[in-house]
Design a protein that fits this description.
By secondary structure, the chain is of the alpha+beta class. It has 1 helix and 8 strands, in the order αββββββββ. The chain has one domain: 3-Layer(bab) Sandwich (minor pseudopilin epsh fold), CATH 3.55.40. The protein is elongated.
Length: 139
């Protein structure tokens, strides 16, 4: 009985910590995915010598990259659904100069800088894209 009681107390302490750690891990993965895909959009525009638009949808917790084929379905545009596994994240906001789209010209220059904020549970990360350096950082 004593061993069961000790196990129950330890489980009650460990379970919430595990949940918070999992949420932090998932939100970090989602933020990194967005940062990598911002670089992908820029490189795709430069490679094609044509404009590429990365569009975020806060309502569906997803984003797409027009003109780049999806990895699973090459006949469709590249699309990432952050609400699905492994991320299970929500897009709280996406703002690139007043809208939720970031456009790269054929030289890879962005039309603006901006931010995307994602959340899993209580954990929140902000991906900041700097138009001058053309780099994304995670806060």
């Amino acid at each position: 009985m004593l061993a069961v009681a000790i196990f129950a107390v330890l489980s009650a302490i460990a379970a919430p910590r595990y949940g918070r750690a999992t949420a932090r891990y998932r939100v970090d993965m989602a933020a990194r995915r967005i940062a990598v895909d911002l670089a992908l959009a820029r490189k795709a525009a430069r490679s094609a010598g044509a404009e590429r638009t990365l569009s975020f949808s806060v309502d569906s917790d997803a984003y797409s990259l027009a003109g780049v084929p999806d990895l699973k379905d090459p006949s469709a545009d590249y699309r990432v659904n952050l609400s699905a596994g492994p991320y299970e994240a929500r897009i709280l906001s996406a703002d690139f100069g007043g809208d939720a789209k970031l456009v790269f010209d054929g030289y890879g220059a962005p039309d603006s800088g901006g931010t995307v904020q994602v959340r899993v549970g209580e954990a929140v990360r902000t991906v900041v894209f700097d138009a001058n350096t053309r780099e994304a950082t995670i806060r």
